[in-house]
Amino acid sequence: MQDLLNDILEEVKPLVGQGNVASYIPELAKVNPNQFGIAICDTQGNVTKAGDATTGFSIQSISKVFNLVLAYIYYGNSLWERVGCEPSGLPFNSLVQLEYENGIPRNPFINAGALVVSDMVHSRLISPHVALRDLIRKLSGNPYVLSDVDVAESEFEYRARNAAMSYLMKAFGNFHNDVEEVLHTYFMNCALRMSCVDLARATQFLANRGFCTITKSDVLTGDQTRQMNALLATSGLYDEAGSFAFKVGLPGKSGVGGGIIAVVPGRFSICVWSPALNKMGNSLAGVAALESLTRHIKWSVY
Amino acid sequence: MQDLLNDILEEVKPLVGQGNVASYIPELAKVNPNQFGIAICDTQGNVTKAGDATTGFSIQSISKVFNLVLAYIYYGNSLWERVGCEPSGLPFNSLVQLEYENGIPRNPFINAGALVVSDMVHSRLISPHVALRDLIRKLSGNPYVLSDVDVAESEFEYRARNAAMSYLMKAFGNFHNDVEEVLHTYFMNCALRMSCVDLARATQFLANRGFCTITKSDVLTGDQTRQMNALLATSGLYDEAGSFAFKVGLPGKSGVGGGIIAVVPGRFSICVWSPALNKMGNSLAGVAALESLTRHIKWSVY
Amino acid sequence: MQDLLNDILEEVKPLVGQGNVASYIPELAKVNPNQFGIAICDTQGNVTKAGDATTGFSIQSISKVFNLVLAYIYYGNSLWERVGCEPSGLPFNSLVQLEYENGIPRNPFINAGALVVSDMVHSRLISPHVALRDLIRKLSGNPYVLSDVDVAESEFEYRARNAAMSYLMKAFGNFHNDVEEVLHTYFMNCALRMSCVDLARATQFLANRGFCTITKSDVLTGDQTRQMNALLATSGLYDEAGSFAFKVGLPGKSGVGGGIIAVVPGRFSICVWSPALNKMGNSLAGVAALESLTRHIKWSVY
Amino acid sequence: MQDLLNDILEEVKPLVGQGNVASYIPELAKVNPNQFGIAICDTQGNVTKAGDATTGFSIQSISKVFNLVLAYIYYGNSLWERVGCEPSGLPFNSLVQLEYENGIPRNPFINAGALVVSDMVHSRLISPHVALRDLIRKLSGNPYVLSDVDVAESEFEYRARNAAMSYLMKAFGNFHNDVEEVLHTYFMNCALRMSCVDLARATQFLANRGFCTITKSDVLTGDQTRQMNALLATSGLYDEAGSFAFKVGLPGKSGVGGGIIAVVPGRFSICVWSPALNKMGNSLAGVAALESLTRHIKWSVY
What we know:
- The structure is a homotetramer.
- Chain A is an alpha+beta fold.
- Chain A has helices at 2-12, 26-29, 63-75, 96-100, 111-124, 128-140, 149-157, 160-171, 179-190, 196-202, 222-235, 241-247, 284-296; strands at 20-21, 37-42, 47-51, 57-58, 146-147, 192-194, 211-212, 217-218, 252-254, 259-264, 268-273, 276-277.
- Chains A and B meet through helix 11 and helix 12 of A and helix 11 and helix 12 of B.
């Protein structure tokens, strides 16, 4: 396994730094693009890693996976009354579909869907961000996971489009709490700093039918885990979901911080990270590393 | 395996006949809804079956799978210059996305995409329908597979929307042959009559890394097969692709004739058939049977 | 003229109360639907009236006309850099076009356009609502025109869709001030209470090449007045703009409070009011009264 | 009046040839862009002209006005059951709105609307093109008006988008005749060659409450004429309808051949022509000439 990661590292080195670091908020634009890390966590909890795998980065949209876990815990399958499970076919931050489909977002991994999930969690918890952080600390076994307040504030300042989506859903009756408060929590969640090792550990339950080897407990049921992976496979990489399935063939979730988590069901979870993004907003070297991985292990879910 | 199919048959019996038979063309509307068949073909070519598994039905959009095989054979990966590999997020026969995306259909399993694939095949073959029929005859081992000319003519008569899509793509330069001719071929392909057993056999190569045990030859390469399955997983069931991934978790393709093929990679291919459709246009009892199947075998790709 | 108004009053009486009072905010829903007023103000400033022409009502979107006057005064033709002058072809509160056209609203009479105009006025004035109210008091010669704070607050509470539009424009850089503050002003403007007589007087300058006979001064230049009337003719009645041009043939602006102002260039301004609305959101009896008017005077701009 | 036209000619001279001649069909691209003509026909039938006012050109979409006259004659107001009277807010050849609005075009001056009107006329007449040509010959007093068959054939060859729209409407049940046949007629109508003088005469009835001074007979009723002019004012210049109302303020209809007809109700009809088009597809010098005209006569409908 270590050889595999070393090989991948060697292979993608020329790509690291290609593409562009997310620049829509000043704080994210400051990151050095010449970094790359990869970590794998198998179903026994063994971690293998290479490159900058212990460097913390902003997990951004990868937080949507954990937020959905919270929603599963508090709502079960009734959560699907307020958000769909279909691919969106439109940019991750589009309002068009929301308007045509009465404020019900297509899936929980586009922004509108994640916002509605945040709103749901808000209705049940007093400190939803703390709850999410604590969940992540337990799942990753790292009690020091923290949110980068500067990033969160920078995102809040540039909240206009997310605010627009939230208010539009509110206009359709599908957003119940105060928009600004939910956005605060949402951005705090996005701004969590974690390393590849942290994230590989924290998502290992997805490769293990919902069972977390670190906490020795079920995070989701087997059925829920299959559903989560199915959603990650069809909708986890924004507009690149189809081509990611096509080229990589694993359930996965990316974030504009340059991280991507992926799952080989029954075997292991993976986290790659490299800050520079391709045109679709996903880590350029990260996608290449995952392509290389499935080529090497001669395995994809398909 | 036989027990499994018998159990599934028993389980879905109450659902058979629920929903509505496709009525947009008179010929299809004549089918008796109270039929149900299922067949499985493993990677050694062994077939297990239950119910009306040897009754022929109109394969309709399932023909798109075989047509894409032809395009792979004649164009290789260059085929993706004229059609995408992303989920569409819109109804299967929508023209909106075509107009916004310059006549490039989202994927080869929505109608516009299948029409462009037909147009491509037309540019290379003198008798594209005969070529497709012969391919299917070989893959299924059934030399008597034939198209139902009454169905094809009925579809041609009601061709308006498919003609509109073809002409719109022509306006964008992404349709090269005569629209009426391509539509004739397209409808002849859709009107092919096959049974569950035929289709399970003919798609067995998808479960077998592209190798067909009947012809003892490679239909697609291993990579192409993974790609095909990925596409089937993200885009094979129209608007229900996401929820099918969610509930069933297998690559699959449905047709308005009530057939659905699905793939358990490395193990077997499946074909279910029952003519009455749910609101999304997929066989109601068929989807239920596949859900039951993955529950029984405790396995999905995710 | 008095006979004309009496005839119209008689003619539309059976229609008064038909349709539905605007119910999207509780305050507006309380109005008695069985009211109808009409007033005409000629270019000498003479007013003729019939029915409930001195009863105050919520002017709602008619305020957009006066707000645009403020924008003309402070920005001149540079105002058109931030808002278009084309019909929208979509519902008045749609976000779809905004997203496709980079946050530039189609015209100043749909909500998004009026919000951008409010934002512009906000950038130049400390008390934009007071400025608007004072302008209206002068133009109408009624120093007691006031805003109904209950209505404004009720609208603010249900601000979600307008907030969504404002934030979406902010995301595109076409909204400069604080969203909540601009919305406060916007709703205070909408909640101004005026009678038919007040509004006929206050819009008389539109029939008089921009000259207000009450203040004896130019409100707009002749060219600006022609432009304003052209805009009112193509975009003043929401989705009914075309059919209003078709049936009535006068520049006009409606509000969900049931008021409609219209202009016979060179001759007079008109205000009709009746609270119950047709399906397009315009006063049912009001539209009928204006149809009757142009039929009686055998004159439209076309 | 002659002085006026001479002044306008002088004023727009520097603009003649600016912009681009329509190039979507080869035949139209051959026209010399350095031509400009203008003609006015008053309600007594007196014609004043300047520049290349007697040179024939392809009237293209201006034919939609006459085709709508035929529909009025054969269907009366029931024609509005199959086509709307609202501005479209989308490009003249868009299919998006058709799909969202069930195949009912927004108005008779966008392509889809004109195609439906052609289809209607086809249902009533054996030789619809001959009928249109004869109508135009009578109205213009020029018995030699003919269609340019080369242009019509060239347009038919590039018919894809118009065919797409026709088939889409057929799919919604709003197109009854054979698509290819209706397109033949449609393109023959578009390819009619007329001069500014011909067109000013042929549209003079629009300035004269429907009465044609040449044939001494009513073409449309007064009400129908008002409706036609209202439609021309809100929808006659494609995407530039609003800004044309804004700048020129007259009902008008443009064609990609570079012609524009406009109406000063009660006074006269105008036809300007110059082949080079602005970005919106309307004659650049033609629009400027009409702006100059309304500035000189200090009059618009608003």
